[in-house]
Design a protein that fits this description.
The protein has eleven helices and 19 strands. It is of the alpha/beta class. Strands 4-3-5-6-7-8-9-13-12-11-10 form an eleven-stranded mixed beta sheet. A four-stranded mixed beta sheet has the order 18-17-16-19. Helix 2 packs across helix 5. This is Phenylacetate-CoA ligase. Keywords: Ligase.
Amino acid sequence: MQLGEVLRRLAFNGLDALQGGKLNRLKEVNKREIVQGVTPEYIDRRIEKLLDYARENSPYYRKYKGAECLRDFPVLNKGDYLEHYEEIPCEGYSNKEKIYSLSTSGSTGTPFTVICDGDKMNRVNMNFISCMELNGFRMGMKRGEFRVWIPGKNTISSWKSFKNNLLMIDISNMGDDALAGICRRIQREKIQVLVSYSSALTALSRYISRNKIEVKDWSVEMIFAMGEALPWDTYHLLTEEFGFSPVRSYGNNENGFIAIQLGEEKGYTIDLYNFYVEILKLDNDEPASPGELGRIVVTDYYNKMFPMIRYDTGDTGIMELKTDKKGRVHGTLTEIYGRRGSLLFNCKGEPLSIHVFMNVLIHLEGIVHQAKCIQWDRTQYELLLNADREKIKEEEVVGLYRRYLGEEADIRVTYVDEIPIQASGKRMVCENRWKEK
């Protein structure tokens, strides 16, 4: 435990206590409800209150005065929100003393900013801390956040960095020299928590393994994976290297963390205290059947400035709902396939997890530096390879992909010098350009 951690925790708790302890209460309730589940009455009450509020205060939602339930409201994606951006905010929001922005990078689609008030911002922050604390985080721990940090766009001030004990770790370059520098910084600055996109963790863990770097002298106590699903090979490699398991999460910048891994569970426990989650069919707005892959659609209970009702996140997954003996509802995302635009199908039309493509790359280490599989048609695929031309055996590489895509797969190989990392810090390993899907 570091002195800076203790002092920041004391400062946070002291300041919060002076203001009535609201943040700590919010955090503890959030943690309890994630673990214990919520009652059906809570769900019904939150939805009814949100819909009534939106119909009364949002110019856009006034047209749904006659809507009787949540399913009568439209499913909206980023494009829909942008089209009606001036109509959705609730009247009177411009008179608020403080307006906060929750922005996405636009790395996999359209840039998008959601506005909110201080109450929602507090909930976003305490939601994050709740998810972390459920997995061993202590308030005030020194965090290294892995992103592509762009000056003037998403960087944080020196004061905020100091206050939050947060260090910006730039991952715009993930070559060996850059990774060596990142490793030195983690050790030198005694970073306790790594918060990173899964693709960067994969690169880091493989670099540590390849160079036989000893991490026992590091101060790292927690690894928090966000963004695309963490490959199981990376999960196990990080566990072997650091002596503890990384934490997997699911969320977005617009809403906050929506689901979190608890302990060694394979699924992601949904935060039903803050969100109502639906899984809708891939090609229409009907509910998916239990165990069926579908679109992840989220209703945010607490953004009173910019209501997000039935927000199509662009991600896909499978959800399981159950009610325990006490009558409390628990939700689990048993599988997250990632964004619909990166959801590939094999020749039989069956969806493939992003894990498939990330695991293939792990087995090609040292030969294929980067790869991206693009689906152009039902059986037409293109494989972009940044590889060592002298070592690569193209037929073997294609064979590894065909094992998952199907024997009918027509796979065209294109060699490239670089597959650029996206603005968010993600490097997509697959992309669906098949318009029929």
